[in-house]
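Marked as duplicate of an earlier ticket. Keeping the data here for the record.
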Amino acid sequence: MRVLAAMSGGVDSAVAAARAVDAGHEVVGVHLALSETPAALRTGSRGCCSKEDAGDARRAADVLGIPFYVWDFADRFKEDVIDDFVASYAAGETPNPCLRCNEKIKFSALADRAVALGFDAVVTGHYAQLSNGVLRRAVDADKDQSYVLAVLTAEQLSRAMFPVGDTPKPQIREEAAERGLAVANKPDSHDICFIPSGDTRAFLGASIGVRPGAIVDSDGEKLGDHDGVHGFTIGQRKGLGLPGPAADGRPRYVTGIDPDSGTVQVGPAEELDVWTVRAERAVWTSGQAPAEPFECVVQVRAHGGLAPALVEAVDGGLVAHLREPLTGVARGQAVVAYATDAAGDRVIGSGTICAADRERHAAGEAVSARG
């Protein structure tokens, strides 16, 4: 096959491209320029898409003996990822920009251009496994990225390749060193790539501005003021701007955010428990919504937040009736449904969380009975 290898300048994408070459594919490397100011987007292990990264990707391509290009996707990235991120926080949500980047950039804009140029697939260094259209968790559970890939449609998965998902990260670094790739020991990038300082609140404040509101307790009593709901997320404990814990000495957590009134509600830990998660814009990896409710395990954030659940497709979205409560469930994140079989954890589908309920709903029991 003729494949396009997305090379970020890191070790994972370099080894992924190398494995594609080993497999006999005709490989062309491409680095995505996603920033209008690339020189400002890397500070050690923070950020990505800098001139340094483009240079590292080019050198890796030279070692592999494959053609290499840099494609400018900065405008598309700003519109589909950065602007979406800011708007989502302004609406009281907690978005995951990696989800949007995969959905809108790497496996949409990039893949569409690749197909138009005659490529059969896009190769990336994501830690996930893909076989016959089935997306599964990576062998390395600590590096697994199937959660941020669960937004991909069946069509997008049909033209994707994840060559490193069957190997633990330490072995990938060893392989890179054996291949003579200079990025073998390059630090992994972390945090949000377009916020190299790591200070998300400051970035959002500069983008959104001051939007004062009140911090209230569970009874609606005002406890303090804030400069904008974008500075808070569900489950947050630190940085609330309150003088201390509640009167009973227990710590307070953000339990609710109302962007319309600008109100942030705080309360004790038990008020974070939810039993029902509702999501919109469901994506099913099979290409079709399940006709019947099904038992599975759901994940509600990139790291952690797993619980058994009964999931049903509803009006273009999905509802997950949890078998045990989860905390820190925030609007804007994804809920991903996994099934486990002999080959491991398989992604069934995902949706963008739009609501979470603390009450157990009779509908969940009725659905369980029907199942």
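See parent ticket for discussion. Residues 97-116 form the longest helix (20 residues).
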